[in-house]
Amino acid sequence: MFDSNKDNIIEVHTGELKTGSGKSILKTTAIGSCIAVAVIFLKAETEGILTHIMFPGKSFKKQKDFRYAEDAFDRITKIISKLKVDKDNIRLFLIGGGNVLEKPDDTICELNIKSVKKIIKENNLPETASVLGGSVRRSVIINLKKAEVYYSEAGGENRLLWSLNHNERRNGR
Questions:
Q1: Sheet with 24-31: strands ordered across
Q2: DSSP character for 133?
Q3: What is the overall mean pLDDT for the chain?
Q4: Are strands 127-132 and 90-96 parallel, antiparallel or unpaired?
Q5: Statement: residue 44 has pLDDT above 80
Q6: Averaged over 73-89, what is the pLDDT?
Q7: How far is the C-alpha of 12 from the C-alpha of 144, rounded, in Å?
Q8: What single-letter DSSP state applies at residue 154?
Q9: Domains of the chain and any CATH numbers
Q10: pLDDT > 80? residue 173
Q11: How far is the C-alpha of 126 from the C-alpha of 142, rounded, in Å?
């Protein structure tokens, strides 16, 4: 999947949003009720974003807080605009939103899923694939060198969610 000696592994912790390109590997773990949003931009050199969102809606603070869905997506849409990426060249993935504590009254996971899906629809962003709900913890890895997205459940083996080579062909690239 990747060579930890040669590739630049960028850890994304809860409430963070990080970008990468080229040989970068973006990685986040311990996704319970949170939602990991993975974005790949298909350009001459593949670029991407990974954020680990904890809460629905918007932060009450003046400064952006990427723990909140609206704040994270505000930044994502600004990056898309700055890079001038056509929406046909955006691949967006959602992973998480699980009720890992298995409490019947735990609604944060569903609120997170609804909030993120609403924001995606409002911004007319393409949702390529998702692994949402359930009751297991997940992890996400974006391999930008290979344009691949992996996820794992409950500390298990990494599974391929999407790959440019397996799911589609890059026109002229």
A1: 8-11, 24-31, 138-143, 148-153, 159-163
A2: -
A3: 91
A4: parallel
A5: no
A6: 94
A7: 15
A8: T
A9: 8-162 (3.30.1330.200)
A10: no
A11: 17
Q: What does the pLDDT look like over 115-169, one tens digit per residue?
A: 999 999 999 999 999 999 999 999 999 999 999 999 999 999 999 999 998 776 5
In angstroms, the CA 9 to CA 1 distance is: 12
Residue whose pair of structure tokens reads 């997205």 in the numeric block: 149
Tokens encoding 2: 């990747």
Cα–Cα–Cα angle for 130, 132, 133, rounded to 5 degrees: 165
Query: Could you write out the DSSP letters of every residue in 70-94?
Result: HHHHHHHHHHHHHHT--GGGEEEEE
What token pair was written down for 19? 């970008």
**Spatial separation of the C-alpha atoms in residues 64 and 58, rounded to whole Å:** 9
How far is the C-alpha of 90 from the C-alpha of 83, rounded, in Å?
A: 11
126, 92 Cβ separation under 8 angstroms: yes
Which residue has 């003046």 as its token pair? 62
**Contact partners, residue 13, CB within 8 Å, separation at least 6:** 28, 52
